[in-house]
Amino acid sequence: MRKKISTFVKCLIGLVLLNITACGTDCKDNCPEEPIFKPFAVPANFPATTVYTGEPTAKSFDLGKALFYDPMLSVDSSISCGSCHQQNAAFAHDGHDISHGVNSLVGNRNSPAIQNLAWMTTFFWDGGVGHLDLQSFAPIENPVEMAEELSHVMHKIRRSPKYPDMFKAAFPDVKDTSDITTAKMGVAFAHFMKMLVSANSRYDKYIRGEGEVLTQSELSGLQVFTQKCATCHSGDLFTDYSFRNNGRPVTSDSGRMHITLNPADKYKFKVPTLRNIEKTGPYMHNGGLSSLTAVLNFYANNVENTPNLDPILNQNGVLGIPLSETEKTDIIAFLRTLTDNDFLKDKRFAE
Ligand code: HEC
Ligand code: HEC
Fold first, then answer.
1. How many C-beta neighbours within 10 Å does residue 326 have?
2. pLDDT of residue 324
């Protein structure tokens, strides 16, 4: 009911004061329920964005979303971005350690959450892509993900019954199908993904002073976390976006070195955000840990002294992070306060 009233009020303000509709072009008397497009905004407890992609509009967002959920973009029309990035898992792959793409082929990395990308400086576990507008090309062409050629994707999009009009609506300089380019598709993807902002967890409401109260265990967890985890998982984005080796068992995956070819980067992976972490398991770049309890036990007992192990995890000859059982329980209680149900259920982002 409150939602209805607030939509109604927005419509009135839009119609009367601004002489535009604040709730979509068709809204006259019967204003639509959510979802309605809201412009990108920086949450009060977040830093300024670091990133570059342009401002999403309702039309570029709609186009990016349609592309994101369209299996036509894969070689056999079986897999969309949304197959491996599911909203109920904060756009990670629910329950999968590594994701399978077309023909059930598997890669070697865990599908990360997609959220708060407007603050992310590099993409993928190894930071292999440096610009959000270019990010979508990698999974489309990846042989174990969508295995499609960009030129063929363009061909399918230009011939499709719906996309030419959507591109024209999203980009004023698209006059006919030959103006539809891979670059514009990349921008549309970026505009959809930029809007995937998660900033309404209980923790956020607590930290912004919006009347949310944390339990004693959650508060103790926050305190231990700040002491023992927040050097790397820092600030309200819960990452400093650096590349670090946190002592996981080594595999053939050299991490950041795969991109830089610098041996000093061997086994370093991008520090992931911990937002919605309760929903994004299994954990780590290869999905090697299945639960948050396993993650805490790993940091407490199983950090390995491999090349380039972060010095924070090897202090005074002690490997890992000393944690009592109570501290582990409290940290997990705290981490659960980072679950943002508004984000996980936001109809604007649903297929
Ligand atoms: C087959 C499963 C699969 C499909 C399909 C897929 N992804 Fe991913 N995605 C992954 C995996 C696995 C990674 C991590 C890859 C890596 O780090 O090398 C990833 C990483 C990402 C990231 C980087 C997030 C970060 O934290 O750095 C973004 C953004 C992303 N994908 C968007 C997309 C988009 C857009 C599409 C569709 C064009 C797509 N993905 C299709 C599995 C998939
Ligand atoms: C030295 C930096 C550093 C410290 C300190 C650190 N982490 Fe991490 N954390 C990382 C890196 C790097 C990864 C990713 C490693 C990988 O994927 O192999 C990670 C991954 C994780 C993940 C998995 C996230 C995902 O999406 O898969 C969780 C959960 C986590 N850390 C929680 C914690 C907690 C809780 C603490 C404190 C007890 C902590 N971390 C301390 C660097 C750190």
1. 12
2. 98
Residues lower than pLDDT 70 in the chain: 1-34
Q: Residue 100: its pLDDT value, please?
A: 82
Residue 207 identity: I
Q: Are 126 and 255 in contact (CB under 8 A)?
A: yes
For ligand 2, mutation pick of 116, 241, 254, 271 (most atoms within 8 Å of CB): 271
Q: Do residues 22 and 14 lie in contact, with contact meaning Cβ atoms separated by under 8 Å?
A: yes
Measured between its terminal Cα atoms, the distance across the chain in Å is 25
Q: How many angstroms does the Cα of residue 327 sit away from the middle of ligand 2?
A: 16
The answer to whether 90 touches 82, Cβ cutoff 8 Å, is no
pLDDT in the model for residue 56: 96
Query: What pLDDT, on a 0 to 100 scale, did the predictor assign at position 29?
Result: 62
* Residue 111 CA to ligand 1 centre (angstroms): 6
Distance, CA 8 to ligand 1 centroid (Å)?
Answer: 38
Per-residue pLDDT of 244-259, as tens digits, reads 999 999 999 999 999 9
pLDDT digits (tens, 9 = 90+) for 307-335: 999 999 999 999 999 999 999 999 999 99
Q: d(Cα 192, Cα 300) in Å, to the nearest integer?
A: 38
Ligand nearest to the CA of 126: 1
**CA-CA distance, 118 to 115, in Å (whole number)?**
8
How many C-beta neighbours within 10 Å does residue 61 have?
A: 23
List the residue whose alpha carbon is closest to atom 36 of ligand 2. Answer: 229
